Amino acid sequence: MNSTDKPRRGRETRKAAPMRRQEQASPVGRPYVMAAARIEQVRSALGEILQWEYPADASLSHWFRAHPKLGSRDRGEVAEAVFDVLRHLRRYRQFAESGTGPAARRLAILGLASVFDKSVLNTGLSETEQQWLAHVQGIATESLARAVRDSLPDWLDERLASLDDADELIRALNLPAPLDIRVNPLKADRADMLKQMRAGPGLRYDPEPTPYSPWGIRLQGRPPVNRWPMFEKGEIEVQDEGSQILVSLVAPKRGEMIIDYCAGAGGKTLLLGALMRSTGRLYAFDVSAARLARAKPRFARSGLSNIVPVVINPDNDQRVKRLRGKAHRVLVDAPCSGLGTLRRNPDLKWRQHPESLQALRDTQASILRQAARCVAPGGRLVYATCSILPEENEEQVERFLAENPGFILLDAGKIASDRCENLTLEGPFLRLRPDRHQTDGFFAAALERKKETPVKKAVQEAEEAPQGHNGEID
Ligand SMILES: C[S@@+](CC[C@H](N)C(=O)[O-])C[C@H]1O[C@@H](n2cnc3c(N)ncnc32)[C@H](O)[C@@H]1O
Question: Which residues form the SAM-dependent MTase RsmB/NOP-type domain (predicted)?
């Protein structure tokens, strides 16, 4: 699960334009209408989202389409309140149990308390509601159990408890994220792009270079990046710095044959292709034709001509078979719980369950096994997720290595730091966390197929399969 590569919702922070609506900024009489109407809008949107039928951003987009009269500021405020509720749902539900009237309205009020100043919000509240809000806002959250205070389901709280500095991690996952973009190294230079942004549409979003990735720029607030000329020209893409660092582990070279095995909407494919300087052959595999279709306009904007998108079957795909033992590098950006991206997708903590995790683990192991067969002797296999759970990460890799002695584990931290200055990581794995690196939570391992281990079986099977020119597939 990864939806890190599109413009995100998130509260405006730091130097971005102040977001909390203040009474003095509104004409007389307006705050009441605004606050009262907004409470009803947020309540109504939450009514759809909390069914959990679809991801929250999809449900919210659906709700916006059903309310076309709302302007961009209205939508921004509704989105901000809704996402605040999703982040703090368990605590807010507990707070909403007290008080009178529909609890759904009280959830909306709590969400809007993060958007509006008290004076504005109070204009839409009854006396009793104002008293209730003041009461719950005065509760010392430190006295609550962590799962309530930081709003986690019990099963997730228990799993996260085993991680180092769990409290810091959980707190960071509950904060809204800034927006990272990535410069397309084929078309632009980061220093020039920073200048252009500061002189143009990016100025009010406080653009700064990302600390580790040489291609990243961090923006505060909710910049409408996809309407900016540099985006339309393919000079920039939205991509969390963590994803950029992860691609640096693949370290593709000019002229190589690379497979992005789970390419999805192509976020990582784009950077891989640019690092190959649009040479060689870059297969973008995915089982989802719809996701690959979403990647196509991005590929077109990027100016890359080395990408071959292929919709594959999850089992026994003949085109995959033909690439056995041939690829210099294979990236498996596996489908995962996405729990490292809670800053942007807080609904995932309510949409995932231990049972769905087990199914994901089986899929991950199966994809890793199949993708590994494509790696040439001496070639590199990178396994990555945007999860923070060991069962989707270290445990998968350790099991794979135990079953596949022809592969060895490389030092991912060292490889990443070759490309990403300032990045010092301990241990063989790449583990990024919002509390330590200000990125989403990511995991990656870099493996190498031993040179001396012939991919005998794989090659044999590849020879049996009908070949395209040079073992390529169309
Ligand atoms: C984490 S997402 C990939 C995100 C993408 N790499 C990016 O950077 O935008 C995982 C992808 O794996 C795909 N997937 C699921 N099962 C698969 C399989 N058996 N083989 C290949 N891809 C699969 C999903 O369709 C999804 O697009």
Answer: 169-450
